[in-house]
Specification:
heterodimer, A: mainly alpha, two-stranded antiparallel ribbon, 19 helices, B: mainly alpha, globular
């Protein structure tokens, strides 16, 4: 299956989900769509020619695309399993209108399609447009719940993200002009830019890069463009915030990585690296400090995302192949762990109808599974062994230490603050019993297997990968590193 | 690239007129005139593309002019007008942080800022004066649009701010280069989806959920419900 066949197939699925009225059929169609993404990767990898180019080299699937699509498809697969029962519950309680169900599924499938197209874009302008489309479909899914606060959160998400993305357009125009001037014919194809990076004017490139970076930084949840994320994550249905945080955020980092790898070949490499280090540090500071006074579990995870994006940006900015290797592995580790956290908060939300700590009462007795999953997931995300994020976070820090101890000390200090943020919220949520009601008085929400299985799977995968990282995965990531950092 | 073109006064005049519409969008409260200003700005943008086409004979510019007319002069204002009727507001008096007078002052500052911050990079790319003017005005217009988006409260105004930002980016791009036509089309599709989404959400913001559903039905089936056109 080639990319074009996949895109046509996905469009057919989107149309069918929009037309059908059966929830089961919508869910099955979405499942088939996700499986077709795996098929796409399989067929690309099984052909001798690699990377694969499509439509005048405007699209390309290389190792980085394969890796990102695999992460996205895995998260989507688990979300599809989780979503049916989760949405049934929202429908039963009136949080979601039955007429909007087809819209939810059509939007989710459209989002998956534009995500795959973003990761397969060789042309940076196409990447920009598809990334922008992910914002719009995400906003639609945030807004679909029966609440004005959701609409408010969705609008904030759209306006902040889209507005900053206009600067990326300006940067792309500058880049295009420079290639037109230097190479004779203008191009925005990443592979062509990598080939010719050394010939391009570093001064123009650094200006273009600064503009392009801004828009994608907003997409990656980098401070100070992160302000819409906490609202969006806390208001969206749990299945949606999982996708937003574990997949859509990666598009921003993916794009930054692509642009930075071009800059690394030019005379402005040091300046480009400094921009990453600056915004990385800013995100770590703002993300970790904001976690300290959080009273909402999902906002807490959102700010942890900001802090982690910052850490990954620094990892990219220090510019060594080893650091990039760990950043890439951390992308996988962090995406899966965050997904498990958001899915666990979904079960707690079904019980308490809130993500606020003050409303979570006697959780260990009433929802032992979700509580345990949230605690284990948190342990994994802050980097406690033997989970995969421990290895990746520790190794990134080790690489930062090699680069500069003066950078390591503040990074480490602020990471410790995030531990405090998590500790405060979890202690408050799980050690307090209800004063008015005994645990037995609370009407217990029985989470079906469809909600629990994806969480267990995610936690098992990050545990397994923490203990044993398969050679194929390591080879894939080294291949990406070699392609990006020549 | 339009390096070879002598500086035609008409292009400068259109650019100045576009900046005036930008300044009016920054300061106006009346939503209807905001929309008219945007429409006028897009129309001027279309003329700009046409004049540049007449000068350079570049076919992409003609395509862009047609695309601008269809989307920004006709379709997008129509959607916004419809949204305005649904939510029935005529004024956005809530200037969040800055008053109209200050907005204008900031606008002037933004133009100077764009001029100085871009001068080095633009020098590397060309020495054409018209190029400077177009690029600087384009960036300034984009920054003014951003100011409107972040400083005003109503969704209609925010949307127009965003659209103005995009117009600015487009002016910048046509003075510097010609992007492939496919990209231009995709940008417009993106813009239309954004406006549609903002319109649907604005209707939702303005009403309770039951009303929202009813209004949404009315937008979907105007004839059946006797809705407004």
């Amino acid at each position: 299956m080639a990319l074009i066949e996949y895109a046509l197939f996905a469009l057919a699925v989107i149309c069918l989900t929009a037309l059908t009225k059966s929830h089961r059929l919508m869910s099955v169609l979405s499942l088939i769509h996700v499986l077709s993404c795996f098929l796409l990767i399989y067929s690309v990898l099984s052909t001798p020619v690699f990377p694969k180019y499509y439509i005048d080299e405007n699209f390309m699937i290389d190792y980085l695309s394969v890796y990102e699509i695999l992460i996205a498809s895995t998260v989507f697969l688990l979300v599809v399993i989780y979503r049916k029962d989760y949405l049934e519950n929202l429908l039963a309680r009136g949080f979601l209108n039955k007429n909007n169900l087809a819209l939810v599924y059509a939007a989710m499938n459209s989002l998956l399609l534009v995500i795959i197209l973003s990761f397969s874009s060789n042309n940076l302008a196409l990447l920009w447009i598809f990334a922008e489309l992910t914002t719009l479909f995400s906003a639609l899914m945030i807004a679909v719940m029966n609440s004005q606060k959701n609409i408010d959160a969705a609008l904030k998400y759209v306006f902040i993200s889209s507005t900053v993305m206009v600067f990326t357009f300006i940067g792309l125009v500058l880049l295009f002009t420079e290639t037109e001037k230097t190479l004779g014919a203008g191009t925005l194809n990443w592979s062509a830019l990598m080939e010719n990076a050394k010939n391009l004017d570093p001064h123009v490139l650094i200006t273009a890069y600064a503009f392009i970076f801004l828009g994608f930084a907003a997409k990656a949840g980098i401070a100070p463009f992160h302000t819409a994320l906490p609202h969006a994550y806390s208001k969206a249905p749990s299945s949606v915030s999982t996708v937003l945080s574990a997949v859509v955020l990666n598009i921003g980092l993916f794009a930054i990585l692509r642009i930075y790898s071009i800059m690394r070949e030019t005379g402005s490499a040091a300046a480009a690296s400094n921009i990453l280090l600056f915004y990385g540090m800013l995100s770590i500071v703002i993300g970790s400090l904001s976690m300290l006074h959080q009273k909402n579990t999902r906002k807490l995870i959102a700010f942890s995302s900001v802090e982690n994006s910052g850490l990954m940006l620094i990892g990219i900015g220090i510019s060594t192949p080893a650091a990039l290797f760990w950043v890439l592995l951390h992308t996988l580790a962090y995406s899966l762990t965050k997904a498990s956290l958001f899915l666990s908060t979904g079960i707690l939300h079904n019980q308490y109808l809130s993500n606020k700590v003050e409303n979570i009462k006697a959780a260990l007795q009433v929802q032992p599974f979700a509580s345990a999953a949230l605690i284990i997931g948190t342990a994994a995300i802050i980097g406690i062994p033997p989970f995969l994020p421990f290895t990746t976070k520790f190794s990134i820090l080790a690489e930062i230490a090699k680069y500069s101890v003066f950078l390591l000390i503040p990074v480490l200090g602020f990471i410790l603050i995030t531990y405090a943020g998590f500790a405060v919220v979890l202690t408050e949520a799980f050690t307090r019993d209800s004063e008015e009601e005994k645990p037995g008085d609370l009407k217990k929400y029985r989470a079906p297997l469809g909600l629990k299985a994806p969480i267990v799977l995610l936690l098992l995968v990050i545990l397994f990968l923490g203990l044993y990282t398969p050679k194929e995965l390591i080879d894939l990531i080294w291949n990406i590193t070699r392609t990006l950092y020549r | 690239m339009i390096d070879a073109i002598p500086i035609p006064g008409i292009i400068q005049a259109i650019l100045v007129l576009i900046m005036i519409t930008g300044a009016l969008i920054v300061t106006r409260k009346d939503l209807l005139s905001l929309l008219s200003m945007y429409r006028l700005q897009s129309l001027l943008l279309m003329f700009l593309a046409l004049v540049l086409y007449a000068e350079s004979g570049n076919y992409v510019l003609l395509q862009m002019a047609v695309l601008t007319l269809a989307s920004k002069v006709l379709l997008i204002p129509y959607i916004i007008r419809r949204m305005q009727k649904e939510i029935n507001i005529s004024k956005d008096i809530s200037f969040h942080y800055i008053s109209p007078a200050y907005s204008l002052f900031i606008t002037v500052a933004l133009i100077f800022f764009s001029y100085y911050s871009l001068s080095k990079t633009l020098n590397e790319l060309t020495d054409n004066k018209l190029f400077y003017l177009g690029a600087v005005f384009g960036i300034s217009l984009a920054l003014m649009g951003m100011m409107v988006t972040f400083s005003r409260k109503k969704i209609v105004t925010k949307t127009i701010g965003y659209l103005m930002m995009e117009n600015g980016a487009l002016i910048f791009s046509i003075f510097i280069t010609e992007l492939p036509f496919l990209i231009e089309v995709l940008i417009i599709i993106d813009l239309v989806i954004l406006v549609l989404l903002a319109a649907i959400l604005a209707v939702g913001m303005d009403s309770s959920i039951e009303e929202f559903q009813a209004k949404l039905e009315r937008i979907k089936h105007p004839a059946r419900n006797g809705g407004t056109h």
